């Protein structure tokens, strides 16, 4: 009994923080969305094509960014976790560097790279005589690349920690039985690492769903949910619609996270 009370008291500060900073604000948003205008504000958000498009864009972009980030991070994460070589710490630092940048900075970096007078279009024009990808930073593809900029490092860091715990005996046994690198990857490493892969998908998806700074800089021809929330709050002072969008964004993110958690079991 004493141990249970000790554990409860140690967890109490965190529980109070979560109640004040998470549960109460979400409950407030839900109450406003369900009661404001007789509940019509939530129906308005769900019925308006503009808001539905923003939510769908956020879901599609976040899903694609999470999946591609996971694929791109498998190799670097495995090498950093399992191999010892000179410069490994420097490589880890270089990969993790984008995590220290704000979304606004990442957006401007994409403008420098793929803007209308970006470095890549100019380089292609110098080599071929004709510029390509000018202004791509302001398209759906440009925003997708910008998301990868900070999601791939996040995925590498998450997977590296999981791969460190991968039993070396399994890999050695598969090698002894004649399995090649690709076969060991598909039949040994990936099944064992499946929970870590799903956790990485959940982390990168959630981070992408809430990303705002990058979209603020690059979204010119389309919209995403965080940008619509910002516009409703600052441009129209429409707290009810912004709150309903926040609630839908949170529910979609939580649903995907819980789905991956169930699959983890």
Q: Which structural class do the helices and strands define?
A: mainly alpha
**Element-by-element helix/strand order:** HHHHHHHHHHHHH
Radius of gyration, in angstroms, nearest whole number: 22 Å
In CATH, the topology is named MetI-like fold
Q: Quick one: biggest sheet? A: none
Number of domains: 1
Mean pLDDT metric? 84
Residues in β-strands, percent: under 5%
Percent in helix: over 70%
What distance lies between the first and last C-alpha atoms, to the nearest angstrom? 30 Å
Shape by Cα distribution = globular
Any idea what the CATH architecture is? Orthogonal Bundle
CATH class: Mainly Alpha
Low-confidence stretches: none
Can you say what the CATH homologous superfamily is?
MetI-like
Give the total of beta strands: 0
Short description:
Helix 3 crosses helix 12. The radius of gyration is 22 Å and the shape is globular. The chain has 265 residues and is an all-alpha fold.
Tags for this entry?
mainly alpha, MetI-like fold, 0% strand, globular
Can you characterise this structure?
The protein is mostly helical and 265 residues long. It has a single domain, classed as MetI-like (MetI-like fold). It has 13 helices and no strands. The protein has helices spanning 2-35, 40-47, 49-82, 88-96, 103-114, 119-128, 140-164, 168-176, 181-192, 194-209, 213-218, 225-234, 239-264. Helix 5 (103-114) crosses helix 7 (140-164), helix 10 runs antiparallel to helix 13 and helix 12 (225-234) runs antiparallel to helix 13 (239-264). The protein is globular. The chain starts with a helix and ends with a helix.
């Amino acid at each position: 009994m004493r141990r249970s009370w000790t554990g409860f008291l140690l967890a109490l500060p965190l529980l109070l923080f979560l109640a004040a900073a998470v549960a109460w604000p979400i409950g407030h948003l839900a109450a406003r969305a369900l009661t404001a205008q007789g509940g019509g504000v939530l129906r308005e958000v769900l019925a308006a094509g503009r808001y539905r498009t923003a939510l769908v864009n956020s879901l599609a972009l976040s899903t694609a960014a999470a999946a591609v980030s996971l694929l791109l991070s498998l190799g670097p994460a495995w090498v950093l976790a399992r191999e010892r070589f000179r410069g490994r710490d420097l490589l880890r630092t270089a990969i993790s560097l984008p995590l220290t940048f704000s979304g606004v900075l990442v957006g401007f970096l994409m403008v420098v790279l793929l803007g209308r007078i970006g470095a890549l279009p100019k380089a292609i024009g110098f080599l071929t005589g004709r510029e390509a990808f000018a202004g791509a930073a302001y398209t759906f593809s440009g925003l997708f690349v910008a998301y990868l900029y900070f999601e791939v490092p996040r995925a590498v860091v998450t997977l590296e920690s999981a791969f460190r715990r991968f039993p070396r005996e399994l890999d050695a046994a598969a090698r002894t039985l004649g399995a090649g690198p690709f076969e060991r990857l598909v039949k040994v490493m990936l099944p064992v690492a499946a929970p870590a892969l799903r956790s990485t998908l959940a982390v990168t998806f959630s981070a992408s769903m809430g990303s705002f700074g990058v979209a603020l800089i690059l979204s010119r021809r389309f919209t995403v949910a965080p940008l619509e929330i910002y516009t409703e709050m600052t441009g129209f002072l429409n707290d009810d619609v912004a709150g309903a969008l926040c609630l839908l964004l949170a529910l979609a993110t939580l649903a995907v996270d819980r789905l991956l958690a169930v699959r983890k079991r």
